[in-house]
Specification:
The protein is an alpha+beta fold. The protein is built from four helices and ten strands. The protein is 19% helix and 30% strand. The strands form two sheets. The protein has a five-stranded antiparallel sheet with strand order 1-7-10-9-8.
Length: 201
């Protein structure tokens, strides 16, 4: 029996040159939309039993252990990221550990593309497409925010001071990619403080 050929939304798109920072698509990963009652101790314990991760219940946070991480999306919704090869095992484990509870475990691995931005000025580049003050307080590593980026629904996770992952729905992946490669090109950098030097025309 032939194995399924998983292809990302940006399959075949090479890493662009001439940019002020590095932009690339994360390889396909298993993604699970989990819904349940965060106030239920048995629910939290079941999730940790399967994933090894304490369920993040503080808004706009995330948690990780090894190859698995969990992003907080709302008071009763989380995004679990795991290796593609462990997807079925993780879903089955969650359904078994949480059996009898009012929950939903849904495979959404092909719903989004994840674009990783790395380098100095990464936050300034993202500011060109959203209204969040990414340079202010409240955006330490691990922070998760739903945003409207370049007029589309998106999600960001802050990895560290110069690395952010941008989650966009699959159908908008090329649009988001084109926006980023245009706004992150060398010569398009934004200096928010001090003298602004316009590039030669």
């Amino acid at each position: 029996m032939a194995e399924p050929d998983y292809r990302s939304a940006l399959h075949g798109v090479g890493e662009p040159a001439g940019l002020a920072l590095r932009i690339w698509e994360m390889p396909p990963r298993g993604t699970i939309d989990l819904r349940g009652d965060a106030g239920n101790e048995a629910f939290r314990a079941g999730v940790k039993q399967v994933t090894g991760v304490d369920l993040p219940i503080t808004p706009r946070t995330s948690a990780a252990w090894g190859e698995i991480k969990i992003l907080w999306l709302s008071v009763d919704q989380w995004l679990i990221i795991c290796p593609r090869g462990r997807l079925d095992e993780t879903i089955g484990g969650l359904e078994s550990a949480l059996k009898g509870q009012h929950i939903a475990v849904t495979d959404v691995s092909d719903m989004r593309a994840v674009i990783r931005l790395e380098g100095e000025g990464v936050r300034e580049v993202l500011l060109k497409g959203c209204s969040l003050d990414l340079l202010g307080d409240g955006y330490e590593p691990g922070t998760v925010r739903r945003v409207r980026f370049a007029e589309i629904a998106a999600l960001i996770q802050v990895i560290d001071a110069q690395t952010i992952e941008l989650y966009v729905f699959r159908s908008y992946a090329h649009y988001a990619w084109d926006f980023l490669t245009a706004t992150a090109r060398v010569g398009a950098q934004v200096k928010l403080f001090g003298e602004q030097v316009a590039p030669a025309v």
